[in-house]
Amino acid sequence: MADTDASRQHVIHGLYADHHGWLRARLGGKLGNAEQAADLTQDVFVRLMAQSLHSLQAIREPRAFLNRIANCVVIDHWRRIDIERAWAEALISAPPDVAPSAEHCAIVLETLYDICAMIDALPDKPRTAFILARIEGLGYAEIAKRLEISERMVTKYMAQAMLHCIALEEPAGARGA
């Protein structure tokens, strides 16, 4: 186990030493902000640390692999900005006597991030059906018509989406109990 951890750290250190500067410059060009690029570059390497030794050793094109992770990190970053912007707009349009605390705002934002992550983790068709039903408020018949599928498939996709969300919400220790 210790050898595996040391090997993983060695591979990650090598990737960091060889590609950190390149990745930071690449993200800087995408974002137009050196500080954000530095933060997101670190996020890429944090995600890399979650990879198994086998996965790390299987990397044949390190820059392509890092770029793929970086693209996901940038998308998550932009998504968080969109969520924060939408929350700020909701706060601005709220009556003046409804002023949530900073703690409440942080909890709401974190919850919104979690919900978005759950929805984004769904396969395409169940995600689309879920969004149409729960966010746009469409009935199953209208969803079926829009997606050119049967209502039975809409029901199946909705069940799949709900089970997915429940599984993600369930604490890890409760899963086999």
Strand content: under 5%
Order of helices and strands: HHHHHHHH
Mean pLDDT: 86
How many strand units? Answer: 0
Whole-number radius of gyration? 21 Å
- Globally, the shape reads globular
Structural class: mainly alpha
Number of domains: 2
Sheet with the most strands? none
Work out the helix count: 8
Q: Report the end-to-end length measured between terminal Cα atoms.
A: 28 Å
Low-confidence stretches: none
Helicity level:
over 70%
Note down, in words, how this protein is organized.
By secondary structure, the protein is mainly alpha-helical. The protein has two domains: 1-97, no CATH class; 121-177, Orthogonal Bundle (Arc Repressor Mutant, subunit A). 80% of the residues lie in helices and 0% in strands. The chain has eight helices and no strands. It has helices at 2-31, 34-49, 53-57, 62-93, 102-120, 124-135, 140-147, 151-169. Helix 2 (34-49) packs across helix 4 (62-93). The radius of gyration is 21 Å and the shape is globular. The two termini are 28 Å apart.
